[in-house]
Specification:
This protein is α+β, with helices and mostly antiparallel strands. Helix content is 19%, strand content 30%. The radius of gyration is 22 Å and the shape is globular. The chain binds 2,5-dihydroxybenzoic acid. 2,5-dihydroxybenzoic acid (GTQ) binds next to β3 and β10.
């Protein structure tokens, strides 16, 4: 039995007294701060796209993109509902954005970086600092920090993508800036396809000087990503945890494509059952293709195409693929790596 604390009443009175001088005793809270290993506040969670799609379409009826500015249904982690800014994991935001035919989500810029992973629809665009990219399912599109961006849909079908933003990270650092452009569209500056031509072919303009930390490639198309993974899966050796997993990189530095969010795509062959894995970054997964399940701390999340799920930091998980499956994922790993914090652990084979 723990010894009876001495001076209990005196201590409480002391704490109350020093609180009026903006002081507090560390010893009362230390063990909660320095846990033996991460104790992520978020829950593991999964959203089935076919269940939330009708609600997204209802939002499309209730509010216009212009009025909403961004018509997004937030994927709110069930254990973090009270948190502001909203988040899917402790550090990251995810939401599903809908643009109906003929709509424009007006141009603005902010210090938070955004990624788009295209779910549904084909042919709507995002424009970043005056360069448009037409979006197709499975494409990964980047909006770097402090770049003007608007989204528009000139097709006849609704367009839906997943937004990932570093809202909570930037909020923690109190580095939030925002500016509205004032008109729907930022003027076109470069022709479509310009960034992929300059930076996306294993070539760089000869005198290219890096500006900022984010990849200059606006759209990493699914066509190219899938082709690379498929080719790899034919010859190469698979990772026993990840199957075939590639990260999206900055073409001039080889670093992650975005400074605050690390993005990757993995191919799990049909019948794949991965070895248990954990890492200190909570990860958000989007099912680009296929179906299977991910077992997190012994609990299964069964997923199919377009579903989104989140695996909390340091929880052991493994993937099982019923069909050949492609999983897009993002996390705050680049930040943890830069700070010397990132860890992973693979179960012994
Ligand atoms: O497209 O700029 O999901 O500013 C949340 C905030 C999307 C966007 C979001 C945003 C955007």
């Amino acid at each position: 039995m723990a010894p009876e604390p001495r001076h209990t009443a005196e201590r409480e009175a002391f704490y109350a007294r020093i609180a009026t001088s903006s002081l507090a005793p560390l010893w009362e809270v230390l063990k909660g701060i320095q846990s033996v290993e991460p104790r992520p506040p978020e829950a593991m969670a999964l959203w089935h796209y076919d269940e939330i799609r009708p609600m997204l379409m209802e939002a499309g009826r209730l509010i216009s993109a212009a009025e909403a500015e961004r018509r997004v249904l937030i994927l709110q982690n069930p254990a973090l509902r009270e948190h502001s800014p909203p988040r899917i994991s402790h550090s990251l935001f995810a939401g599903l954005q809908l643009i109906m035919p003929g709509e424009i989500a007006p141009s603005h810029r902010h210090t938070q970086s955004a990624l788009r992973f295209i779910i549904e629809g084909e042919g709507a665009y995002t424009a970043v600092d005056g360069e448009r990219t037409t979006m197709r399912p499975g494409d990964f599109v980047i909006t770097p920090s402090w770049t003007w961006h608007d989204h528009g849909n000139e097709t006849k079908e609704p367009m839906v993508w997943l937004d990932g933003l570093d809202l909570a990270l930037v909020d923690l650092l109190n580095a939030v800036f925002f500016e509205a452009y004032g008109e729907d569209r930022f003027p076109a500056g470069r022709p479509e396809g310009d960034s992929i031509a300059r930076f996306g072919s294993g070539l760089l303009p000869v005198d290219y000087e890096r500006r900022g930390l984010t990849s200059p490639i606006l759209n990493y198309t699914y066509e190219r990503t899938r082709e690379a993974l498929e080719q790899m899966s034919r010859g190469g050796e698979r990772d026993r945890c990840h199957g075939f997993k590639m990260r999206y990189v900055h073409p001039a530095t080889g670093d992650w494509a975005m400074p605050t969010m690390g993005t990757a795509m993995q191919l799990l062959p049909r019948g794949f059952s991965g070895a248990p894995y954990r890492s200190s970054d909570s990860a958000v997964f989007v099912v680009a293709e296929g179906n299977g399940r991910t077992v997190v701390s012994g609990e299964a999340l069964a997923w199919r195409q377009h579903d989104v799920f989140v695996v909390p930091s340091w929880r052991e998980y493994h993937h099982e693929a019923a069909d050949e499956s492609l999983l897009f994922s993002f996390s705050d790993r680049p930040v943890q790596e830069k700070l010397g914090l990132w860890r992973e652990r693979r179960a012994a084979s």
